[in-house]
C-alpha cells in the first residue's frame, strides 16, 4: 500500500496537473515522477531470466519514477544478477524459494502482495502472458484494486490504452486506485536492454505460506525453431492444410527456408494439425513479426486479433474473397499445395 503521506502528496501533485504551462506545472510533473515507483514482475525458467518479460521494465520506464524488479524461485541469485544488469532497473528484489519455481499463482500472489506492501509501489507491471494472466488478477483481488489488463500504451500514470472486442476497438481507461495492477501486451513494449544497468539486489519478504496446489508435471513442445511470440518471421497454416501430415510437409519446410517460427489458426489446432502452443489469435498468442505469411487461413476476426499488427502480412488462399486479403499487404490467390512448395523451392535456391 502507498503510505498515507505519499498518497496525500500524490493527490496534491495530481491537483496541480491541470493543462497549463509555466514553471509550476513543470515542477509538478517532475515531483509526480519522483513519487512514482514501479515494480516489474520478471519471469524466469530453470534459473534463467526470461528476456521477453523485460517489456515490463520498458513500460515502467514510460511511466517514469523508480523501477524495482521482482524475481522468485530456487537458486534465484543468478537470475537476480542477470536482472540487475538490465538497463533502467534500480533495485532487484529476489526471493529464493523453490515453491515459486513454476510461478503457481496460488502461492506467488500472496508472496507478491507482501512485497508490494513492503515496497509501497504505485504500479505493479507484468507481461500479459500465461503467468501474468494467472497471477495479476489474484494480486489485484488481494489488494482490493482493479486490474488494468493487456495494455498497449501509457498516456500518464493513471491512463492506459487497451484493445477491446478482439482488437476491434481501442479503449482509453483511467484508474483511480492507489496501486495500479497492470499487464502489458508484449508486442507493444519491446524488451528493455539486457545490459547497461547496475541495480542493487536485496532479499524480498517470503510469507512461506503452505502451497494449496502442487506442481505435478509439464509436457513442453521442444523446437529448434524461433519462439513464436518473439520471432521476426512467422509462417502460419490453417484448415486449408487438410491434415497434420500436410501441415508438416507443406509449412515446416517453408518455415525452415525463411528461418521463421510456425503458427496456426485455431481451426488447424482444433483439427490436430498443429500443437496448441502454436495457436495465433484472440485465444492464442498475439504476435507482431516483421513478416506474417499465412496459407489456408480465412482471416476470421479472432485470428486477426493475434496478428494484425504484423509489419508485413502475406496471404495465400484459393478464395479471392477470403477476408484475410482485406488486411494482407501481399496476397496470392491459388492452391497452397502448389504455391507454398514453389515458394519454398525458390527461397532455398536463393
Ligand atoms: C471465442 C472465440 C475465440 C477464437 N479464438 C481464435 C484464435 O485465437 N485463433 C484463431 O485462429 N481462431 C479463433 N477462433 C476461431 C475463428 O473464428 C475461426 O473459426 C478460425 O480462425 C478459422 O480458422 P481457418 O482460417 O484456419 O479456417 P477456415 O475459416 O475454415 O478457413 C480455411 C481457409 O483455407 C482456404 N483454403 C482451403 N483449401 C485451400 C487450398 N488448397 N489452398 C489455399 N487455400 C485454401 C479456404 O479458402 C479458407 O479461406 C475463435 C473463435 C471464437 C468463437
UniProtKB/TrEMBL annotation:
GO cellular component, one term: mitochondrial matrix
Keywords linked to the UniProt accession: Electron transport, FAD, Flavoprotein, Mitochondrion, Transport
Cofactor note (record): Binds 1 FAD per dimer.
Location in or out of the cell: Mitochondrion matrix
Cofactors, names only: FAD
One example of a Gene Ontology biological process annotation: fatty acid beta-oxidation using acyl-CoA dehydrogenase
InterPro entries, per the entry: DHS-like_NAD/FAD-binding_dom, ETF_a/b_N, ETF_a/FixB, ETF_alpha_N, ETF_asu_C, Rossmann-like_a/b/a_fold
Record keyword Protein transport present: no
Positions with a binding annotation for FAD: 239, 265-266, 279-283, 296-303, 317
GO molecular function: electron transfer activity; flavin adenine dinucleotide binding
Positions of the Electron transfer flavoprotein alpha/beta-subunit N-terminal domain: 38-224
Family under the similarity heading: Belongs to the ETF alpha-subunit/FixB family.
Function of the protein: The electron transfer flavoprotein serves as a specific electron acceptor for several dehydrogenases, including five acyl-CoA dehydrogenases, glutaryl-CoA and sarcosine dehydrogenase. It transfers the electrons to the main mitochondrial respiratory chain via ETF-ubiquinone oxidoreductase (ETF dehydrogenase).
Oligomer and partners: Heterodimer of an alpha and a beta subunit.
PANTHER family, per database record: ELECTRON TRANSFER FLAVOPROTEIN ALPHA (PTHR43153), ELECTRON TRANSFER FLAVOPROTEIN SUBUNIT ALPHA, MITOCHONDRIAL (PTHR43153:SF1)
Name the record gives this protein: Probable electron transfer flavoprotein subunit alpha
